[in-house]
Amino acid sequence: MDRRTFLGAMAGLVPAAAFAQTTTVPGTALQGTASSPRSLSIGAISAPNSLDPHFYQSPTNNQTLRQIFDPLVTEDAEGRVRPLLAQSWRAVDELTWEFKLRPGIRFHDGTPLTPDDIAFTVERVPDVPNSPGSFVPYVRNIAAVEPIDATTFRIRTKTPNPYLDRDFTNLYILSRKIHTGAATTDFTSGKLAVGTGAFRYAGFTVGQQIELERNPDFWGTPTGWNRVRTRFIPDAGARVAGLLSGDLDLIDGVPVQDVAHLAADPRLAIFSVASATSVYLFPDASRDQSPFVTDRAGKPLDRNPLKDVRVRQALSLAIDRKGIVEKLLLGQGTAADQFAPPPAPDRLPGRPTPTADPARARQLLAEAGYPDGFGLTIHGPSGFFTSDVAVLQAVAQGFSRIGVDTKVETLPIASFFSRATNREFALFMTTYATTNSAELLRQVALTKNPDTGAGPFNRQHYSNPKLDAPLLEALRTFDGERRVGLIREALAALDEDAGIIPVFYPRFNWAGRKTHVRFIPGNAFGHTNAVFTEPV
Amino acid sequence: MLPWVLRRSFQAGLVVLAMTLLVFAGLHVAGNPVDILVPPDADAAERARIAAVFGLDRPLWRQYLLFLERAVQGDLGRSFIHNRPALSLVFERLPATLELSVLALLLAAGFGISLGLFAGLRPQTLPSRLIMAGSVVGLSLPTFWVGLMLVVAFSVRLGWLPSSGRGDTQAVLGVEWSFLTLDGLRHLALPAANLALFKVALILRLTRAGVREVVHLDYVRFARARGLAPSRVVGVHILRAIMIPIVTVIGLEFCSTIAFSMVTESIFAWPGMGRLMIESIQVLDRPVIVAYLVAVVLLFVAVNLLADLLYRLLDPRVGPADAPANATAGGAR
Asked: pTM, whole model, 2 decimals?
């Protein structure tokens, strides 16, 4: 979810480190040259590629467009689905959901919001040409949207989907009257960037900045800002400098090295939230022979040691997660105790934080028939998330300590993901972000099936019947309590099998001028926008 | 003259063709854009749809032939990310880079030549020694570090100049320019200075070396002996004789500033072509990468052509490349 956010954060690490030493001197700047009291100037890592809310399903587009448009429902920082345009909803039966819209909602031009607009939105999603990643997976299963009265409508699905409400958290609602026939360029030019949101379009330069003005007729509490300008600054050092010099009021993607010294600055405040991102290792547990696994002398092995659950458990026990979080992330993260991240409400409760246990790991290796270990090359992205290369090196050190002679190879993301998808690695590190454990397992760990399209990000073709059975059952179970039980059963099965080796969960940090702005993270995906701010 | 221009254009065409082939092959080896673009919540059907939309499901040679077919009609494809013609995306970013490069080069030529003349004419004085020592620093400091230091000094500590962005722009003929507004000029100052620093040092050293060589030649002495004003001796006799290498370097530097100012553009969040290129490489946005490189190759060719023409103005002995060198030299005398 936050691939691009991470990318930007990483891109600026080196220059930002230079600032860490040079800018702690109390400056003479930062006298509020940026903004008058009711205007806000934000510096954000990444730039949206269009203002069409259905053109690209990416965190950057979603976070930006959330200011102009609204979804039916939204997700909070604890991963719960909350009302927004819809004030209430329920599943009537397994194939029918009923939503009630908040009355009196109008688009920026005065057009009232009607249930037919939801039908229009669902129709439009597959009709956006050249989308590099669309919302189609969310609406493919919808058979019909049926208006009942002025504020009530029903959504009928082709197959049971207990997560239908969650599917609408990033799908922004357009108007049939305003947006029929609208092309992506009509949004980007501002002509049809007309939504129900708290802000109105006031200017957009692709790759540079977006300007917004207050929507005085907003259906909720109107924002305290008159104007908001968000500038897209990929370089972390430049963002920090912009904040310190007073050009910017609020920045996102604060590099971990800068958190402490910015927090110590009396003029600034750090705002922080636990991320829905899980950083994990994915071992090849399915093939009999795997690339990059050898004996200690470098000769190929006749069987793949990663196929043995004891080897995978040993590797997990070899990782010093606490050390990684404290030393490499400077505390800006949490050691992982399971695959699902902390903001997921349906994760396994009450799990102890694992500590490195090299002795037990060596014993497991010996039991699996590798008393002298073996040789391994592990892969990871570079410049994908904070300290990614260093984390992978720390993992390799842990492996080597128990006798698994490990080399590290990191690649730019442009090649890394393609090679990982092509099954070219024995074990690699990557991330996934969601607050829904069922989605996490369905996308990453569910047995890949080309016919049904299951497990699209199961790059190692992992397969565990003890995970699949409860998960598939959960994905069609409407009883919430029972569903959570099934998901936890699947999570436990994955954990026991060490099919995926979780490492840590990062944190998102923002920094702002204390006397001007307060940032209240609205979700666990690190979205940066003015909707989540208030004037001080 | 005309055959020479035609031959240059033909060569440029071959270079562009070879370059597109390399980019296609190289990016194909590097990775699949679908793996970068695909949202994490996508399913297999969505993956297949994305590949089909961009034609990435076809074999590479088919993709390349299709590209050539469209390129001949002036269409270099649409950006995967922005869903807009790649070429217009590149040209949209060109003015920002252009004004930055031109300003940096003006600064570099102005300071470089005047300081170089001074250091060349009065080599033993203290200021000259300081200038030469400074030029070594200018040549050896990495751009990204200098950029950060400029920001720390002038934006963060002193608060005189903004740290990033383009500031207010003024539209002329539908193109937004920063250098026409005061705010825009303030935004331009730091990145232009950062880009210029290395070039000042380079041009300064070239100028000084040229002056040192020429100043003792007979024609300069005779010019002095004839009682010409020192300004005329320096401005006409010396400067003209040393300009050829300087023009060459300025031409090359101008190209490379336009094409490769990515570092400066990232540090100062300057929305130019360099930043577009970096962003496109990160997501393997092939049409934009190709369009950008085609534009850069054509730019290099054009600027080199211009530099060749300038040589001929500066030194009549320089003739067309296809004419026998000694014949021209003799004829011009």
From this structure: 0.85
